[in-house]
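Retro notes (design track)

What went well: tokenization of the new backbones is finally stable.
What didn't: we kept losing track of which sequence belonged to which structure.
Fix going forward: every design gets posted as structure first, then sequence, in one message. First example under the new rule, 202 residues:
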């Protein structure tokens, strides 16, 4: 591996997009804090809102790096997490060619002509099952942690507990684990499928 490739891998640029009231910015804070405190890396967060806060579009741009971050804005993310259709429609063309796309399948319908692989989780539906739709963002953080190598499970879980309102720690831990388990099951399913296809070819 070349030094340039190493340098590229040392930095991850992430956009989490959705609408006001989903806890999108909190999700960005949790990620950045997990990287900075739990993983001893550099991290930045830029947040942006549409004209309205609750119900309007918003996104969190997070940069995580082993080196000093000189520019905090993300235009072409390595990881794009979409929790609204409008966010997906606006940003899908910006994701890097080999980037990771993650969607809330309850709220986002990818375009039929989408030619890239992606991960999906019914985060909102799972949050509703737990009795609180507001924790869909924490379920998504658990899922993201499982399907990418951007931060460790321990660092993410600690960051969740330090960032959520007092008295909700148990519920948020359950939500995080639910998302994480779903992510691990998704990866396992993909590995089985790939092994089956390899067996069929050989």
């Amino acid at each position: 591996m070349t030094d340039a490739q190493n340098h590229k891998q040392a930095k991850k640029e992430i956009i989490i997009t959705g609408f006001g009231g989903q806890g999108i910015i909190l999700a960005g804070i949790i990620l950045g804090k997990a990287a900075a405190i739990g993983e001893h890396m550099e991290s930045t967060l830029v947040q942006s809102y549409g004209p309205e806060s609750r119900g309007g579009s918003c996104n969190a741009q997070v940069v995580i790096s082993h080196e000093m971050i000189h520019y905090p804005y993300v235009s072409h993310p390595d990881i794009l997490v979409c929790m609204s259709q409008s966010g997906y429609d606006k940003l899908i063309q910006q994701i890097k060619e080999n980037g990771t796309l993650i969607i809330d399948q309850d709220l986002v319908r990818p375009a039929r002509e989408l030619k890239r692989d992606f991960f999906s989780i019914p985060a909102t539906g799972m949050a509703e099952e737990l009795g609180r739709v507001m924790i869909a963002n924490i379920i998504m953080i658990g899922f993201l942690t499982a399907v990418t190598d951007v931060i460790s499970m321990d660092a993410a879980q600690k960051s969740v507990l330090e960032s959520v309102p007092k008295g909700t720690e148990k519920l948020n831990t359950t939500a995080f684990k639910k998302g994480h388990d779903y992510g691990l099951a998704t990866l396992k399913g993909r590995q089985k499928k790939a092994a089956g296809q390899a067996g069929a070819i050989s």
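Added context from the reviewer: Residues 3-201 form a domain with the Pyruvate-ferredoxin Oxidoreductase; domain 3 fold (CATH 3.40.920.10).
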